[in-house]
Every structure is written in C-alpha cells, then in structure tokens.
C-alpha cells in the first residue's frame, strides 16, 4: 500500500483500516462524554408469558443517541466500552435506571415484574465492585433482589474461572436471577446448566427464525425446552416475529417469548404506557 512512499517509509495499514481505527478512537472519545451528556437511553422490550399473553418481564437494552451520528447500535459501542473500561460505569447506570423502573412497575403494574439486563463478559468479570453492592442499592430503594435478572452468555461459563463462580454466587446471595443469553450459539454444553445455578435459558433467535413444523430447528427447540424444564429452568425464546413462531413455541411448552411480534424495544416512558394499557385491559377482562 505504501508503494512510492519512498524508502524507509512503510505504512502497515491500508487507508480503509486507518479510517476504521480512527473512527473507533473518535467514537470511544465521544462515549466518554455520552454518559454525562445524557446521550445514553434505556429502552425496554417486553417478555411475554406465552400462555396468558401477559407482559411479566422486560429486557433493558441500551441505546446511544449520538448528537451527530444519530443512533449508534450497542453492537458497535459495547465493544468500545469494554476496551476502554467505560463499560463499568455504563453498566452501573443501566442497573440503577433498571432498578428505578422495576420498582415502579412492581408497585403499580405487577408485583412480580422483573427487568433483565445484559452483562458483557468483561463487565461480569470486573474487579471493581461486587453484586453485593447491587443488593445494597436495591434494599435502599426498597426492591427485592429477584426483581432483577442478569443475562450472561455461555462463553463465560466455558472459562469457569474462580472469579466467574464467585460472581455467580454473589448474584445468588443477592437473590438476583440469572439468564443464559443467546443459548445455542456458543459452545452449548448441557453440563453448565447442571453445574451452575441458572434460572432462565434464552433460545437464540437464529433458532426461532427458521421454526417450522418438523424442521430441525423445531426439533432442537423442543429438546432444549424439555431439557431446561427437567433441570428446573424457564425458557424464553428470542426473536419471535410471527404468530406461527409464537404458536409453535407455545405448543412446545416454551414459557416466554420476546420479539418484534409483541413489540420492538421501546423508550422507557413508551414501555411504561404500554404496560399500563395492558394491565387495565387485563383488569377489565
Ligand atoms: P441481546 O441481549 O441478545 O438482545 C436482543 C437483541 O435482539 C436486541 O438487539 C433486540 O433489539 C433484538 N431483537 C429483539 N427482538 C427481535 C426480533 O424479533 N427480531 C430481530 N431481528 N431482533 C430482535 P440490540 O438492542 O441491538 O442489542 C444487541 C446486543 O447488545 C444485545 O443482544 C446485548 O448483547 C448488547 N446489549 C444491549 N444493551 C446492553 C447493555 O445495557 N449492556 C451490555 N453489556 N450489553 C448490551
Ligand atoms: Mg440479552
Ligand atoms: Mg439475546
Ligand atoms: Mg441473541
């Protein structure tokens, strides 16, 4: 690439790579100001109990409204937050926001409402802070630990370092529940489910997408659901987009569904309005 640039002058990067690297640096820099500048927003997506059709839970999903670039996907900025260490402060903010909202929804909408939030592997394994501090905060604002579910991925359990086991115990001691996110995409080993105390299994949307009667993904989903139930876990299917997918999953005994069929992730106040609307309908029935 550096041909003609003269002797002793080498460029190891193609211009495209340089642009990408520069872009990441700029975005990381902007991210530092995003928390203070109120550019981070928490959205909520309903998790629907398939038998009753009621919204029992929600997943908190972070959004970044960048002043110049518009919405930046968490798939793009979470890795930058991890690499820069900003993930810890962002995660604390997500937790505190979630705790405030779940408090309100348990008081005003459903006494057992739960909010689940994502913890990336680096975030989960962080040295700073402990989940005992989360419990202290929850106690201070008056909500029990079981109002929060922490979503982790299979890769974490693969390591099964002492630190990971320790963090899982901290969650358990705080009464916070644990969900295994994106199940089926990683090194899914059924032994994890027995070894670690996990409450929910989230079937990845790559399985939901191709669900059809007698398909191999249907057979896999069926087997995952039966196995999870035998081990005492509840199952949440991700990426439910059609009524056919919902019905096949419900027929297979899947407990909960999440996906565009029910709703896209919504700004907190919009989600709040949706919940209240549904609960008044439910009361009227
Ligand atoms: P995830 O935890 O697996 O979250 C589910 C993703 O699927 C979300 O993408 C959601 O918007 C999307 N989704 C939901 N229903 C459907 C559907 O029916 N069809 C399709 N095609 N997609 C659907 P999103 O919000 O872009 O988040 C992407 C990932 O970013 C999340 O995947 C999670 O790993 C990460 N993430 C989001 N918020 C946070 C956060 O606060 N902290 C951390 N550490 N990670 C987060
Ligand atoms: Mg998740
Ligand atoms: Mg997921
Ligand atoms: Mg997924």
UniProtKB/TrEMBL annotation:
List residues of the EAL domain: 24-279
Q: Domain of life, per the record?
A: Bacteria
Protein name, per record: EAL domain-containing protein
